[in-house]
Amino acid sequence: MSGLTPDARKWLLATGFAVKDEQLWLEALTHGSTGNERDYQRLEFLGDRVLGLTIADWLYHRNNGAEGALAQRLNALVSRSTCAALAREIGAAKHINLGKQARDDGAADSENILGDVMESLLGANFVEAGYDHSRDLIRAIWRGKVEGGAGSSKHPKSALQEWAAGNRRKGPEYEIIERSGPDHAAQFTVRVQVRNVGEAEATAGSKQEAETEAARLFMERYG
Length: 223
What we know:
Layout lengths: L5 H10 L6 H7 L12 H22 L4 H11 L2 H11 L9 H5 L6 H37 L8 H11 L6 E8 L6 E8 L3 E7 L2 H16 L1
Antiparallel strand pairs: 1-2, 2-3
Helix pairs in contact: 3-4, 3-7, 5-7, 8-9
Enzyme class: hydrolase
Cofactor: Mg(2+)
Family: Belongs to the ribonuclease III family.
């Protein structure tokens, strides 16, 4: 595996990451499509837990409501779509190491990959600098999302479930009707239906996100 580029190192430091072991940070930025034995998956696993704990602690101390409301906000703030949006915001896309075919397929802008890389960078930072530094870094990157109220409104799937129950309908049924694209940039098309009411379809980079969007479209149409 080649070394971390000077541009990537400069970007990491400017963003606030604690860069010491360059091979660790190279691993955090390397996708499996490169064929390297070490890619970002293990660091992503770690970063996901660091992020979840940090956001949960932050919301708890902000006293943002009861357990249900806290869980709703937590899920939104640590979601892949939020992680991907913030990865784009800090400029991660151009520093991800991808195989040629993956890059040609547009993987650098894949929501799945950007979300994973955001978490892998947090995992690498935890290894290098520990929890306190990682917590402060997450608070700096996520501040706009937390203070902007991301996740405060009811999740579309929960809203649809409650709407169906309130209208004495059978619960919504979700079905994957198409999966397309390569593994690193897969697209899922999901249909949601409520019997004797109607249906809606949506496509996204993960099954969960497609279900969420389909539920939102259903509520716009029938709710």
